[in-house]
Write a structure and sequence with these properties.
About 35% of the residues lie in helices and about 30% in strands. By secondary structure, the chain is α+β, with helices and mostly antiparallel strands. The chain folds into two domains: about 130 residues, Pnp Oxidase, Chain A; about 55 residues, no CATH class. The radius of gyration is 17 Å and the shape is globular. The structure holds flavin mononucleotide.
């Protein structure tokens, strides 16, 4: 698929692993335009992900409905069980639905002038993991949305963020299992520790 076609592809929320010059593997929640042969994503300038990609030019992009891992990857530094990737010098998270190993083709300025870069990467290997995706769940969606609000606390302010979390908590209360509840609790703790 061309990068033009990719602009029409859905933006899928993923967990991206990259490896730093110190060998430390970083997990980051990241929206990715999902093509068959190419992926495009937009790491912010300040992220370890972008720094690592400039250093090594390789990543593993994971699909998972493990919302707690996703939220931790957005707001913290999770250390899930991982193993070596097959083609690149990267790390695959074991308990995910699937993954793609990618090599960076191009890092360019973001089209919208925001403080992030546009990374175009080609898929060089792919695999499926041990986790079976359970499909759509409102509580999972709510916990992901809550993590977006939590990550924007500095710009949105605590009153707005707490109001959004209260609205999203209703969905969690109605439809969550333990993992979704834990993810929402993680979001709330993150905000509480900073307000
Ligand atoms: C739903 C969601 C989508 C995100 N998408 C992006 C993204 O496209 N680019 C980005 O830089 N950060 C994104 N983030 C924030 C990162 O996950 C967060 O900043 C993370 O810590 C990455 O930084 P790191 O590479 O320093 O670990 C997203 C967060 C959430 C909750």
């Amino acid at each position: 698929m061309s990068s033009d076609g990719l602009d029409q592809a859905p933006l899928i929320e993923t967990v991206v692993t990259t490896t730093g010059s110190d060998g430390v593997v970083n997990c980051a929640a990241m929206g990715v335009r999902w093509g068959e042969e190419e992926l495009v994503f937009w790491p912010f300038h300040a992220t370890r992900t972008l720094k690592n990609l400039r250093f090594r030019g390789e990543a593993v992009v994971h699909l998972t409905d493990d919302v707690l891992l996703f939220v931790q990857s957005a707001l913290g530094r999770p250390r899930p069980a991982m193993r070596a990737a097959s083609v690149i010098a990267g790390s695959v998270i074991e308990d995910v639905s699937s993954w793609r190993e990618v090599v960076v083709n191009e890092i360019s300025p973001s089209e919208d002038g925001a403080a992030r870069s546009r990374v175009r990467a080609r898929v060089v290997a792919a695999g499926t993991g041990t986790r079976q995706s359970l499909g759509l769940c409102r509580a999972r969606h709510a916990a992901v949305e809550a993590s977006i609000f939590a990550s924007r606390l500095r710009w949105l302010g605590s009153a707005r963020v707490w109001a959004e979390l209260a609205r999203l908590q209703e969905l969690v209360d109605k439809t969550a299992g333990p993992s979704e509840r834990a993810a929402m609790d993680y979001d709330r703790r993150y905000v509480a520790e900073r307000t």
